[in-house]
Amino acid sequence: MAQNTTQRIPLVSLWRPFVTNLALTLSLFKGSPPQESLFTFPVSPHLCSLSTTFQFYILIINMFSKAVIIAIVMGLGASAAPTSVTESTAGSLVGRDVPYQMFTGDGSHWPDMGAWTNFDTMWANSQAVMTTSCTQFGAANNSPAEIADIKYTISSTSAYSGIDPRFILAIVMQESGGCVRAPTTFGENSNPGIMQGHNGYHSCNRDGTIMNPCPAYMIAGMIRDGSTGTLGQPGGGDGLQQCLAQSGSPYTARGAYTAARIYNSGSHAWGTDLGEPSWGTSCYASDVANRLLGWAGPATPCTLSNPIH
């Protein structure tokens, strides 16, 4: 019988590199100084007695074990690293828990524009409500595509109308919670859509017919109706642009609060209490002011009584 001359590699030569590297890694996490570098290659006591071919095999195993250990260390480091929202862009979520403040009076001592949050933070804060607000109307909630269309249209409408995009967003959230399938309400006029525009034409929930998805052109129309008005169509009326002009101070925070009052009530006497309208929702202007500061609650804590008719 021919003698078997195949040289066997001792098991210790195979598993020692991995165990050694693992031990070194654990010593790093414990804070104890490692006895060997992760980037050196410890030699097995059996290695020198082996052929060059087998030495090469063991060297490959050693290198592979180090690569595995290093990958594990990097993964643990990445998962353990804290994430700070303050390191993000202007759209960070700072301000999500902004408390509500009750504002009364004529708006002269309400927060100025310098106190308003930025649009990206305001947008981020609104998402918890905007993604669920259609439930209250028995309709499908906004899809990501519909939400993207809302944001795009607010920005584009602001660009050509000159209306601050934060003010448009505040009214969108105040009127419907940002639901693209908000139903039409009726008072002296019909008020359809996401901004409940004055006799507006655009709606994704009209006469019991609900559109899902709500087309981008319809979302754009609803926001334009509320922002720049519907004066060019039968029975049309004012939008935010006209209300700002009527406020007497269209480029100031006080003008925006007054315009919000006009948008909700139809008119307002300059210098009178924004929380005591003859018609509409008494908390409306205070709510809008808080939205501009970053508040984004699903329901207002304001306790002003509405006018009785």
TrEMBL record:
Q: What keywords are assigned to this protein?
A: Membrane, Transmembrane, Transmembrane helix
Transmembrane residue ranges:
56-78
Identify the InterPro entries for this entry.
Answer: Lysozyme-like_dom_sf
Task: Establish whether keyword Transmembrane helix is in the entry.
Answer: yes
What superkingdom does the record give?
A: Eukaryota
| Protein name, as recorded | 878027c0-c7ae-4b9a-a16f-cbb918b51f7b
State the organism named in the record: Sclerotinia trifoliorum
